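[Structure tokenization] protein backbone as discrete codes

[Encoding] learned vocabulary of local backbone shapes

[Begin record] amino acids and matching fold tokens:

___
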Amino acid sequence: MDEYIRRLRDGSLKLYALEKELPPKEAIVIRRSFIENETGVPLDRIGDCSISLDSVVKKNCENMIGTIQVPVGVAGPVIIHGEYAQGSFYLPLATTEGALIASVNRGCSLISSAGGSDVRVIKDGMTRAPVFAAENIIHAKSITDWILTHVGEIRAEAETTTRFGKLIHIEVTTAGTSVFVRLSFSTGDAMGMNMVTIASAKAAELISKETGARLIALSGNWCTDKKPAAVNVVAGRGKTVMAGIHLTENHIRQVLKTTASAMQEVNMRKNLVGSARAGSLGFNAHAANVVAAMFIACGQDPAHVVEGSLCITTVDPADDGVYVSVTLPALPVGTVGGGTGIETQAECLRMLGVLGSGDPPGSSAKKFAEIVATGVLAGELSLLGALAAQHLARAHSTLGR
């Protein structure tokens, strides 16, 4: 070990190159020891790993020194009536925020006691949007025209790169001499970001060759990936999914200790008017809390919580109560690839019955999306109830610590 530490210090060996000379486990130990020496901080807990390192260092994490352990709890069971998720589920949530799981658990109890959530995936398409440079606006218009009249050729070229990816839609927009092409793909049970990037590169080559457009960047930010954007609210990205529940006045009074009219007013003044006044792209109470906790527990890309937070919560008057629904227009999720293969995350996906490829392809990811949406609905119900009953501060005082 001392020889490797010496080489790291004198620069003759780079941190990222340790796996080229050593098995992953030994490389991680040496890298961690080097960082401990450099920072003067012992990293014993970070070094306490239970996951398979060989796979992780190849697929998920460079310059690995260990793992961060996030507490995982469960909420539920919650009854779900989806096209793909049907039955009773316990929701795994990884979080360090006291009171969050208790709140979601209360929402799950309310949903189950009311008969279960309605949930549907409305749309499914992962996007990538290359940006091209045109010579002038006349050239930009000719590029646009060619793309829109040669969709079949672009589709055939893009799909040569993937077995499961299917190009389902193309949108084109311009800004001066910049031409943006938003390509939307179905991606089976994968979240699909890598899949659509490779396929879009092939499509972009064809567009450049046939039109003379100069490819500037494979992502021109009209996708839009990991940034709050109105295009994702309007057009969707990943799974567009909705969940809803009818609550009677009696249910609301018994479980949430408030009234249907109070919930309606909180939602209108907070989630709708307040969000509009703030210029928010999300019109909800705390959807990102549940999306983040389930994403971390289940091996999703945590940065996609940005899109997952673009949720609209509505509370409509209904017979003897209200109908509460959440619409998540951009929920990028997958049950294969990425972090889903890491053992701890795979166990959480297995709890939900969604790990791996579905039959037919895409059904596991859609089932997972329906479960996440129900979790978001549970969180919204509980927080709206707490706010309407003026119980929020008390709950955080008791459980937030």
